[in-house]
Amino acid sequence: MTTPRLNRIPNPLDSVEDIMYILDADLRFAFVNAFALALWGRQEHELLGKDWRDNLPFVPSPEVVATFQHAVHTQTRTEVETFGVSHRGWVGIILYPHEGGLLVHVRRLLRNAPTINDTDLDALTGCLTRQAFLNAQAFLDLPCVLAIIDLNRLKSVNTRLGHSGGDLHIRQIAHGVREVLPPGALMCRWGGDEFVILTPGEDRQRVEEALMASHARIPTPFPGVRAFSEGLTVWSPGTPFERAFALADEQLQVQKDRLNNAAPGDWDVLAFVDFSKRLEALNEPDAIVQHALDSLLDLLDFDQAIFATWEGPHHYVTHTSVRAGVRPPSQLLNVPITIKGLTARVQRTQQTAWSTDYPSEPDTLLSALDEGVKSAIVTPVFSQGQVIASLVLRTVYRWQTITPHMRKVVELTALRLEHALELHRAVREVRSTLESGLLTLGIVLEVRDLETHGHTLRTAAMATRLGETLGLAGIELGHLREGAFLHDLGKLAIPDAILHKPGKLTPEEWTLMQSHTTSGFDLASRIPGLSSTVLRVIRHHHERWDGAGYPDGLAGTGIPLAARIFAVCDVYDALVSERPYKRAWTPEAARLEIQVQAGRQFDPEVVEAFLKHQLG
């Protein structure tokens, strides 16, 4: 080896053909021998007085740095083994105390790994086991090229050749790959049909060429299908292994998808089918969206799920779901957020955007980075050809490989949401048209009955608010409102002479007047689309809690809840309204009468809610 010209007094250590250098108490170079200078391609004046960690031709691992710091502090002889980038192999480092600092001796070891026991090797392939491989990482200096290889169609190989033939196939691939790997590479069997390789340095092309060469050496049981697929990335200093693994795995999954090998497992298909059925069975938009978010977390192993509606340059988070133990997203509900990053890409392309390594993306959300978001998918949700919302899945403090299969599942979910929300919108429009017609009919009934103008609208609105207070929602509230519109439909069958009689009705006339509940029920039953709840309000809104009402003498909770709710609202509005046969009561007097009738005419719980929330 050629020694660089040194303008200094020769040192006996210059004749040693190992790396030798001296560090002072602050771990700064005080001397570097000729062998090290030649190997590193440096001049002595470039190193003397400089910090050891920042001036090596590579970044030492945290474990090696810790060992040096311990040795200089304790001034004890210490040995450590690591992978030397300059040597392209495993080296032993001996640290000797020297005038408060360290004399460092680095020599190449005649082996390619730390001490390996039989238990550290996979019995089938001879590669490192997963745990032994993870342990060996502590001896590596970065950068390294990380490669993941996954056997194609191993299940079909086992079916065709039997498990012994499948084992032979695995061994052939493992041996074929190991034979072409650069010196110093580590290879482990990560799983049943997956291997992980670490090669010193950052020459990714060199590793790619080696793997391509192995394809020509390894027999494949299926014509036109390579024995394995691979994904590669450079694992750089300061980067967690999990991040590098996720990036390499993403490349692997893209390649497998192109080879039509990335079909989901049976459990994925069954889970998604069940998820879709549940989604279709829900009626309310909020429930539909929330179920979709909750299910996606479990289906695809994410930590946060978000649904955000779009309006112009902003989007608004309306629903979230998080895995147990994970903090919710920091975005406040229904607060405008400027569209940027992955969401801006979705807005521009109208297609799914994703990132396995979100922090490396340009124009990221600072709030997402602060939360520790590492991987994310954003998928558009359409309505009538326009993007109206986005589905967002994120992992927190861990990297997740975004596979083509994951993207397909999220996109299918967005289509399901689009269909379910469109169906709900169409149903809502139909119901709105129906309600308009029913309200018109109710107003016509008001005119014929000489009731105060607005009675139908007031009681319907009052009953809706009271129903919400008592826990009704969505379609149930709609049915209650429709029942309010039609509650007196049966009065169409009552003669005007009885309906408009100013005096007291005879027993026969009163019996006929009471029949408006059953007549209305019969008439409404002929109107298509009316629910049983609507029909029950019409029939039973004159039943009494004590059983003395009509037409069926129902009592207590035997009276349908919607009818119990409407009865309170109907009587209250009648009391506070002026009629030809009476003067209007004050609201205070009417509420007092409602309270007096609790447990007699009305359900006590309904009365309590009515009075507590001052709905009258």
Could you describe the 3D structure shown?
The protein is of the alpha+beta class and 616 residues long. It folds into four domains: 12-108, 2-Layer Sandwich (Beta-Lactamase); 118-258, Reverse transcriptase/Diguanylate cyclase domain (Alpha-Beta Plaits); 266-422, Beta-Lactamase; 450-612, Hypothetical protein af1432 (Orthogonal Bundle). 45% of the residues lie in helices and 17% in strands. It has 21 helices and 15 strands. It has helices at residues 34-40, 52-55, 62-74, 130-136, 154-180, 204-217, 241-258, 266-281, 285-300, 341-349, 366-371, 404-449, 455-469, 474-485, 496-499, 507-514, 516-524, 532-540, 561-576, 587-596, 604-612, and strands spanning 19-23, 29-32, 78-84, 89-98, 101-108, 144-151, 186-189, 194-200, 228-235, 304-311, 314-322, 336-338, 353-355, 373-383, 386-396. The chain has a six-stranded antiparallel β-sheet with strand order 12-11-10-15-14-13, with helices on both faces. α8 (266-281) packs antiparallel against α9 (285-300), α9 packs antiparallel against α12 and α12 runs parallel beside α14 (474-485). The longest helix is centred in the last third of the chain and has 46 residues, at 404-449. The radius of gyration is 39 Å and the shape is elongated.
Distance from first to last alpha carbon: 100 Å
Structural class: alpha+beta
What percentage of residues falls in helices of 4 or more residues? Answer: 40-55%
Structural domains: how many: 4
Low-confidence stretches: 1-6, 261-267
Query: β content, as a range?
Result: 15-25%
**Helical element count?**
21
Q: Measured on Cα atoms, how large is the radius of gyration?
A: 39 Å
What would you say the CATH architecture of the largest domain is? Orthogonal Bundle
What is the CATH class name of the largest domain? Answer: Mainly Alpha
The total beta strand count reads: 15
Largest sheet descriptor = 6 strands, antiparallel
| Apparent shape | elongated
CATH fold call of the largest domain: Hypothetical protein af1432
What's the CATH H-level homologous superfamily of the largest domain? Hypothetical protein af1432
Determine the mean pLDDT: 83
Biggest sheet strand line-up: 12-11-10-15-14-13
